[in-house]
Request: fold
Amino acid sequence: MAVRSSLRVTIPCVLILASVCALAGPKDKEPAPRFSATTTTGEKFNNETIKGKVVLLEFWTTWCGFCADEAAFVDKIGHELAGKGLILLAIDVGESKKTVKKYLEQHPRNCKIVMMEDTNLAAMYQANVYPIYVVIDRDGYIAGTQRGAGGEEALRVLIARGGIESEEDDAN
Reply:
């Protein structure tokens, strides 16, 4: 009887929490929130500088195993599609520059790295699960969001929603 009673409370709470999580953050096909970001090399990006480009925001951390697993193909896709107008910004969330620098010496990335302290993006997209991928289309609208690891094909599909077909897709 006690189990049944606790389930009556637990199940609605879980459903409410899931609904709130699903509704949190900007939605697809809404204008991307106004942002500014500076890479570790000093490049500056904001809503004005990305006009006409597709932007892939990758929220990651050094301690995230899924982030490490996906980094190689994320960088590969970013490099492969740069000529088609893709900008890949990898935003480290909540770690010191020293920690990230040390990590990148061991695990180099081939993309633009942004520290959370140098942008307002992490708060806007409620980055609390990693990795998170957000695609902003050429018109400045959110084309899609993926929370958590999904693999290379899922990322290519997400980027295609922003208006850039992958080389692999073009061959098929």
Q: What stands out?
A: The chain has a mean pLDDT of 84. Residues 2-23 form the longest helix (22 residues).
